[in-house]
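Friendly challenge for the regulars: who can give me the structure tokens for this chain first? No prize, just bragging rights.
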Amino acid sequence: MVYRKGGIRTPNSLGKYLTALERAFLVLPVTAAIAERTLSFSDRYPRDPMDRIIGATAIVHEAQLVTSDRVIRASGEVDCVW
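First reply, four minutes later:
Bragging rights claimed.
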């Protein structure tokens, strides 16, 4: 987890930080449609389960994914911004 590696610095505990994020952003649940969509990516898309959940969430919600991930962008399977 990035937090444990020191990649995320928070002024408070992780719990308080995540609670603040939930207040500031719309947090979308992983639905059955999203879970099912994760299985439909081609071999060009990253195999990492988190990448697949994030990409599937963007597709199901017809949203653009903001990412610098070159593999995801090169796959052409998710509408990306960056």
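DSSP finds four helices and two strands in the chain. The first strand starts at residue 65 and ends at 66. Your move, everyone else.
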